[in-house]
Amino acid sequence: MPVAVTVTTSRESTPSLWGLRREVPQRPEDVLQRQPSVLSWEQDWKLSMAWLELLKAFLLTPSSISSLTSITEEILALFRRAEELQIRVPAPDDVWQYFEKHPQLIEMTRVLLELASEKLPDASLSLEISRDPEEDEEYVVLYARFHNYDETTMKRIRNVREKFLSNLGGEEEWPLLTTDFRSP
Hints:
The protein has 6 helices and 5 strands, in the order ββαααααββαβ. The chain starts with 10 loop residues before the first strand and ends in a 6-residue tail after the last strand. By secondary structure, it is of the alpha+beta class. It has a 3-stranded mixed β-sheet. A two-stranded antiparallel sheet has the order 1-2. The chain has a domain of about 120 residues.
C-alpha cells in the first residue's frame, strides 16, 4: 500500500514535552493551507483490515485460534454428514451460528442425525433452529416429516428419541427430534 509523505522545508523544529524535536509551521496560514490526508475507500478498507488482523494476532492466543479452527472443522463435518444422509439444512447460517455458540452439541447432533436416518428411513429429515420468542432461547431441532402420518408416527419418533436419550448420560442440553406434521 503506497503511502505519500510530504516534506516541507519552511518549518522550524522546536523541542516537545519529552525533549524530542517536532516540526511547527512558521505561520498560521501554513496550517490552514495544509491538505488533510484523504484515503480512497479501498485504501481505508485495506488499512482497517490490516488493523483488524493485527488486533486478532495480539488478542487471540494460539489456543483460542486452534479452538476456533477445530469448531469450524466440526461444524463442516456435521454439514457434510447431513448432506451424505440427505438431511436438509434450510437455513445453514442459522445452524452454523447456533453451533458456534453451542459447540458441545455438534457431536450429539451428528449422532442423532445418523440414528434418525437409520430408524426413520421413510422420513424427510430437516435440521433447523427453533426459536422460543417468549423465553428468547434457541434450540437445535431435527424435524422428521412424512408423506403420510398415522397413529404410529409419534410412537416411532419417540422410540428413536428414547434410544438417543438413553445414550446421553447426564447431559443438560441435547438436540430435539420431533415432527411438525408438515409434508416433506
